[in-house]
Write a structure and sequence with these properties.
The complex is a heterotrimer. Chain A is α/β, with parallel strands linked by helices. Helix content of chain A is about 45%, strand content about 10%. In chain A, helix 3 packs parallel to helix 6. Chain A has an 8-stranded mixed beta sheet with strand order 6-7-8-3-9-10-12-11, with helices on both faces. A 4-stranded antiparallel beta sheet of chain A has the order 2-1-4-5, with helices on one face. By secondary structure, chain B is an alpha/beta fold. In chain B, about 35% of the residues lie in helices and about 20% in strands. Chain B is built from 12 helices and 12 strands. In chain B, strands 6-7-8-3-9-10-12-11 form an 8-stranded mixed beta sheet, sandwiched between helices. A 4-stranded antiparallel beta sheet of chain B has the order 2-1-4-5, with helices on one face. In chain B, strand 11 and strand 12 form a beta hairpin. In chain B, helix 4 packs parallel to helix 6, helix 6 runs parallel beside helix 7 and helix 10 packs antiparallel against helix 11. Chain C has 13 helices and no strands. In chain C, helix 1 runs antiparallel to helix 12 and helix 7 packs across helix 8. Chain C is globular, with a radius of gyration of 24 Å. Chain C starts with a helix and ends with a helix. The chains are: A alpha/beta, B alpha/beta, C mainly alpha. Chains in contact: A-B, A-C. Chains A and B meet through helix 7, helix 8, helix 17, helix 18 and helix 19 of A and helix 3, strand 6, helix 4, helix 6 and helix 7 of B.
Chain lengths: ~675, ~325, ~325
């Protein structure tokens, strides 16, 4: 489930916006300069102030002046004119090189990506060999054989560089081909050529453009370099490389001569690379990479009206009050969340994607992403206010997350990754740390601890890796474990084992767990208490048996109705209960109840702001109509047969809108009824 | 919902026999255990068959082989009696247009650079339907999945995950197929969206008489939508039969483990199930690799004996379902 | 691991073979022939034909190729068509010049580039943007132009270093280093820029990985996360780019040797190209390819040492 706010859903820019390259100053400069140089050099014969071979021996090696804007060369020839005229050859021959390189590399990459491994392997080996050859020396050999013919030589360079093009484009083509829309097109019978042209190539366009720009710059440099060595066009036709070579001879007395030609050449290559950068969209991020966000100074915690959680008499190791998390300078993601965790129990934070459960859990360790921070509320840990997260991380509060395979460092063995924190936390030597590591692995149910200790993470199965992650979390002997969807990525039988393991750890060590999940079944299995979250708020909280057994909030009712598992002995329903519409994204939460637009029991009173009501003993529920609904024993209806195929079943927002949010639910049978609601009993 | 097709109709909509699919090529691939190892099943017209398994079971590979995205090493696939096993994709579009697919990931199954309308019209063009007729059918398809017809001009980025999945279903339906392969179509969706899409699939199935090959890992979802189910483990069929019989009274230790492991959102009931599951004694996943002959479940099975490692158990009828276990009768004692 | 190394070795041999083949075919595809070169310009056709016959040019291609392969396998590079010198000995003497420039430039680029790139990634902000932009400009500059500028600055203006010329290592190590310093610096400008960019991207990617989040959740000190874990993760692409850099610098040394009058392989190849000296051409291509291939093999070893996935595959 996503950690980012909902707004970041579109990965590809919608068409119609300004092209990416124009949004960066470098890109604008690069494109503009290249166009300028190209036009200037191609039209040079039309506007050049002097002929390229017009010598003026009285005026040799002159500095810039009104007559010669860039000065003159050792034979008195105008530098500006010569630079302009000289530009055509490198630009055009590099363009030819590009055509050859992509003309060979791109089709090869597409073919290799499409055909089986054998074809790809053969082509890849051949291109690897090509890539290893020393470029310029080989080009010199070519020149030595065919003579100093620039265009053919650049074409040969294109052949050699096609290997590099192939290398890069093969990776991209393979990854695009793995996208399911390519499979769908193939299943529909689209021929392979059309698949490539219509589906694969467009997604590769950016990479192709970036590579082309970069290679163009390289072509210019090589072309100029060859000219520098004397393998450029014959005199008196000017060439940038040779002009620099010429200038270097007069370095001592007349250093200026070197500057204009070199600058023009350098600027052109810089322009090509800036264009490539702009196309690639690379940006040095504004903040330092991956640094955990600092907490801003917050207002002092005020006692909120809904100071929720179990009564103060229970030993609560964690007490969260009025916690709000927001994007800095942006929308709130979690609003006014309160709950308490008793020692040795498991609390579930359950909800669908975007409800804020992951943000809430991560804020307990201060591990919010860059740009997101706690904006209000307090976190009370073991009776004291938790401000210094560094001191509790690993030691008192630990974290396990969703994908165990990537949660471990692929470069180090399991033993190394376990012994490092053990030594840090428990201050023991290396041998003792290894013994402790083996014991921890046994504690989490790994039988052959020695083999696992020597392994690397990629050699472990998913379930094994998660056990290692749990062992890693236990190295600091924490009192609280935050488990962020720990079984979502695992098979169901493996999930069952991990849940049993967590249960056993709670029983044996008195560990408390906060379990974030979207799966009500997992919550029912492991959690003693549960808080159901929707759109950044806790809508219902209490003991799991109460909340799931007799839900008070319509959203909880709907979630249970949407679950296809029915109790033993009951028939499978014809249709499931669903919730029309979508979750309102952060920043567009309505006042009053955020679930109102989708609720089957909505009334006018629901749009007024209100606070949480007590429910389920020491729990709470965030619904204005909770008493009426419980009196009427209201239930969330399943869909009628044929409801989903009816027109208007899933309405869209007006054209030009962002991904939909808050679309009104079609009027259910109860919405228009008056106060006493009569639900249809199951 | 629960009645199975008692008499097999004359021509099954989809028939798979002894399908074997391997990954990779070369000698090493040939000697390794295949991803799909001798799977057979029939789907009658209008019937939904659920194919259930965990990772490594080969269920997705079966879908790909049926669709022609992966060439099988052995076995046959027949669509309405016609052999399409080795048929290249281009020929399929003409002769086997009845078979379409809905994939799992709503975010990568639609080309982000093309409008929904263009995506829907593409399969029609290959059938020779173009222009205004194609546009009309695209709109009809969108409306039949509950989306407005004018959504055709929008790009996928403007839709939510559930809506994109509806578009994917519309794309599958736009050519009026009779058989649909659904590869985990709801696994990537939220619970409430999942319910919507499942309801939609049930509606469409009833309205159009479609046959579904429904690949999933969640037995509860399969029980909702399917009439019959195939349980896979490491590429082999462990048990198959009417969905009620298989899920409520499993006759294979693996099916028993699978049904016992799925948690239900009712704490009291779940506590009882957990106790029962722990009493089953099924071994941990990731244990030693099974022997190439014999039953693949041996390393984890509490009922395994010598014959289980030596001989691969054949599928045989036991109490209403077909099961591949030498000791199927004793599975009852496990629960 | 053994399989991986065997594959890389096979690739290396294949590369050298391909280099020989390509050059051989190139040479025979061109208009010129060794006889024409030896006879000199303006020679009669009959004279040229006689020379070609004496040199075995008119034998079947495959026979000539087999001979070439055989000679090269014995490390017999033949003699120059122009001045009859022993090419093997000549190249052997020139190799250290080019190799030391390329190696030292790669090393310096690596060190400087990694420092700059890691700093840019870790510190971010204005410094990061400056380094990134600076690298973008630096890698676009033509090496020969930079070389001339450095000569102007360091040699002509400041008088710190000699402008041109080569001092052999034996006898005067300090002088040797001085004579090579400007060429090395010239190549480092572009090389360090490329490495810096790669390192910055690699570090940023490393620091965004999920396992870094785990480490942070464990309370691992920040310096450890950056310089032990993230750096290790980023080192793999950096080492690969270093290998590519070496190839590029080895080829780029041609231009630099011309500029600074250094007697290396580059100078030899340039001369051979100008004079159509066919045996010299073939031999310099082969030697250059050999060096590049050996260095890449060593880098493959380093990658295997760094990346467990490669090691255990």
């Amino acid at each position: 489930m996503s950690v980012l706010p909902l707004d970041d859903v579109a990965a590809d820019p919608s068409p119609g916006r300004r092209p990416r390259v124009l949004r960066r100053p470098g890109g604008v400069f690069g494109a503009a300069w290249l166009v300028f140089v190209l036009v200037a050099s191609l039209t040079a014969p039309l506007w050049q102030p002097y002929e390229v071979d017009a010598q003026d021996l009285a005026n040799r090696l002159a500095l810039p002046s009104g007559a010669h804007w860039l000065g003159t060369d050792p034979l008195g020839r105008d530098v500006l004119s010569r630079i302009a005229v000289a530009g055509a050859l490198p630009l055009l021959s590099s363009a030819l090189m590009l055509v050859v390189a992509f003309g060979i590399g791109l089709p090869l990459a597409l073919v290799a990506a499409e055909r089986g491994r054998r074809t790809e392997r053969v082509i890849s080996r051949l291109t690897e060999i090509l890539l290893a050859l020393p470029l310029i020396i080989l080009l010199l050999a070519v020149i030595g054989v065919i003579g100093n013919r620039i265009y053919p030589v650049m074409a040969v360079l294109g052949v050699l560089l096609s290997a590099a093009v192939y290398r890069v484009l093969l990776g991209v083509a393979q990854s695009v081909r793995q996208r399911l829309y390519v499979d769908a097109a193939r299943v529909n019978g689209l021929g392979s050529l059309r698949v490539d042209v219509l589906h694969v190539l467009p997604s590769m366009a950016t990479v192709v453009a970036v590579q082309a720009a970069q290679l163009f710059g390289i072509g210019l440099l090589i072309n100029a370099g060859l000219a520098f060595l004397g393998f450029g066009p014959a005199e008196p036709e000017p060439s940038w490389g040779f002009m620099i070579q010429d200038a270097s001879k007069y370095l001592f007395d007349d250093p200026w001569l070197m500057v204009p030609t070199g600058l023009v050449l350098a600027l052109t290559v810089v322009a090509a690379n800036e264009l490539a950068d702009a196309l690639a969209g690379h940006r040095a991020p504004a903040g330092a990479a991956g640094r955990p966000s600092r907490r801003r100074a917050r207002p002092a915690p005020e006692p909120t009206a809904a100071a929720a959680g179990p009564a103060a008499t229970d030993a609560a190791v964690l007490r969260v009050r009025g916690l709000s998390v927001a994007v800095e300078g942006g929308p709130t993601l979690v609003s006014d969340v309160s709950f308490a965790l008793r020692e040795g129990t498991v609390l579930g934070l359950v909800g669908e994607s975007g409800c804020g459960k992951t943000m809430t859990a991560r804020s307990l360790l201060g591990l919010l992403p860059d740009g997101v921070s706690v904006s209000a509320g307090s976190i009370g840990w073991q009776g004291r206010e938790l401000t210094d997260f560094r001191s509790v991380r690993g030691r008192e509060i630990a974290l396990i997350s969703q994908e165990p395979m990537v949660a471990l460092d692929p470069m180090f063995t399991v033993a190394h990754q376990l012994t490092q924190p053990i030594r840090r936390f428990r201050r023991v030597g290396r041998a003792e740390a290894r013994r402790v590591a083996a014991r921890l692995l046994a504690q989490v149910g790994i039988v052959d601890a020695e083999r696992v200790l020597k392994s690397y993470p990629h050699q472990l199965s998913g379930g094994m890796a998660q056990r290692v992650c749990i062992a890693l979390a236990l190295t600091g002997e924490p009192k609280l474990l935050i488990a962020d969807e720990p079984t979502t990525a695992l098979d169901v039988t493996v999930q069952a084992e991990i849940l049993s393991l967590l249960r056993q750890l709670v029983r044996d060590t008195g560990l408390s767990i906060i379990l974030v999940s979207h799966d009500l079944g997992v919550v029912a299995d492991l959690c003693d208490d549960v808080a159901v979250m929707y759109a950044g708020a806790v809508v219902e909280a209490g003991a799991t048996a109460d909340v799931l057994g007799a839900p008070a909030h319509p959203y909880t009712m709907a979630l249970l109705g949407a679950n296809p598992h029915v109790p033993d002995g009951e028939p499978v329903p014809l249709r499931l209960a669903s919730i029309a519409g979508t979750v309102p994204p952060p920043g567009r939460w309505p006042t009053g109840c955020r679930f109102a637009t989708r609720c089957q029991f909505v009334r006018d009173t629901c749009t007024e702001p209100f606070g949480a009501r007590p429910a389920h003993g020491s729990g709470e529920v965030l619904c204005v109509r909770v008493d009426e609904l419980s009196r009427a024993r209201a239930t969330w209806d399943a869909d009628a047969v044929g409801a989903e195929t009816a027109p208007g079943a899933d309405p869209l927002p007006p054209d030009g809108g962002q991904p939909p949010g808050g679309s009104p639910a079609p009027a259910g049978p109860l919405a228009a009824a008056d106060d006493h609601t009569a639900g249809v009993p199951r | 919902m629960t009645s199975a097709a008692q008499e097999a109709p004359a021509v099954p909509a989809l028939q798979v026999r002894d399908l074997v699919v391997r990954y990779g090529s070369g000698r090493r691939a040939r000697s390794a255990a295949p991803a799909v190892d001798g799977v057979s099943f029939d789907i009658a017209p209008g019937e939904t068959l659920g194919v259930v398994g965990e990772s490594g079971s080969g269920k997705s590979t079966i879908g790909k082989a049926v669709l022609g995205l992966r060439a099988p090493a052995a076995g046959t696939v027949r669509l309405h009696g016609q052999d399409i096993t080795a048929m290249p994709l281009k020929r399929r579009s003409r002769l086997a247009a009845d078979l379409r697919v809905v994939f799992q990931d709503p975010y990568s199954s639609l080309n982000p650079a093309r409008t929904v309308g263009q995506t829907l019209v593409e399969p029609l063009a290959l059938q020779g339907v173009r222009g205004s007729e194609a546009d009309r059918r695209a709109r009809v398809a969108l409306e039949s999945v509950g989306l407005p017809g004018d959504a055709a001009g929008r790009y996928p980025a403007q839709f939510s995950g559930g809506q994109r999945q509806r578009v994917a279903i519309a794309r599958a339906l736009v050519c009026d197929p009779r058989v649909l392969v659904l590869d985990e179509p709801v696994s990537a969706l939220d619970l409430s969206t999942q319910a919507q899409v499942l309801n939609l699939l049930a509606d469409l199935r009833d309205q159009h008489g479609l046959a579904f090959l429904f690949i999933a890992h969640d037995l509860g979802v399969v029980r909702f939508l399917a009439q019959r189910v195939v349980v896979l483990y490491r590429g082999q069929v462990m048990e198959t039969g009417p969905v009620e019989a298989v899920t409520q009274a499993p006759r294979h230790p693996y099916t028993a483990a699978l049904t016992a492991a799925a948690p239900v959102p009712r704490p009291a009931e779940q506590a009882a199930r957990r106790a029962a599951r722990e009493a089953l004694g099924i071994g941990t996943a990731g244990a030693a690799l099974p022997s190439p002959s014999g039953c693949p479940f041996v390393p984890r099975c509490p009922l395994a004996t010598a014959v289980c490692s030596a001989e691969r158990p054949p599928l045989r009828p036991v109490d209403g379902s077909l099961t591949a276990c030498h000791h199927a009768e004793r599975v009852v004692t496990l629960r | 691991m053994a399989a991986y190394l065997a594959r890389r070795l096979a690739l290396a041999i294949g590369t050298v073979f391909a280099a020989v083949l390509i050059t051989f075919l190139l040479v025979h595809a061109g208009d010129g022939s060794p006889g024409a070169v030896k006879a000199g310009p303006g020679a009669e056709a009959a004279e040229i034909a006689a020379q070609n016959h004496a040199l075995g040019w008119d034998r079947p291609l495959w026979a000539q190729f087999a001979d070439t392969l055989g000679d090269l396998a014995r490390l017999d590079f033949g003699t120059s068509l122009i001045d009859g010198r022993d090419l093997g000995a000549d190249l052997w003497a020139r190799l250290p010049v080019t190799a030391s420039i390329a190696l030292l430039a790669t090393l310096l680029s690596g060190v400087l580039g990694i420092v700059l790139g890691v700093t840019a990634a870790v510190r971010g902000g204005r410094l990061g943007r400056v380094i990134n932009a600076g690298a973008g400009v630096a890698l676009s500059l033509p090496a020969f132009w930079v070389g001339v500028l450095l000569v102007y600055l360091l040699s002509l203006q400041l008088g710190w270093l000699p402008a041109t010329g080569y001092v052999p290592f034996a006898g005067d190590p300090a002088g040797w280093l001085q004579s090579l310093l400007i060429p090395i610096l010239t190549l480092t400008v572009g090389g360090a820029a490329i490495i810096a960019r790669t390192a910055a991207v690699g570090m940023r990617e490393a620091l965004g990985q999920e396992h870094v989040r785990t480490l942070r959740a464990m309370g691992t000190p920040e310096w450890r996360i950056r310089y032990v874990h993230a750096l290790r993760f980023a080192s793999v692409p950096v080492v690969s780019v270093l290998g590519i850099q070496f190839i590029a610098l080895f080829g780029g040394s041609v231009i630099v040797e011309n500029l600074f009058a250094l007697p290396g392989l580059g100078q030899a190849s340039q001369a051979a190209a100008s004079s159509h000296d066919i045996p010299a051409l073939i031999s310099v291509v082969v030697v250059a390819t050999l060096v590049v291939v050996v260095v890449n093999l060593l880098l493959d070893l380093v990658v295997a040492a760094l990346d467990p996935k490669v090691r255990t595959a």
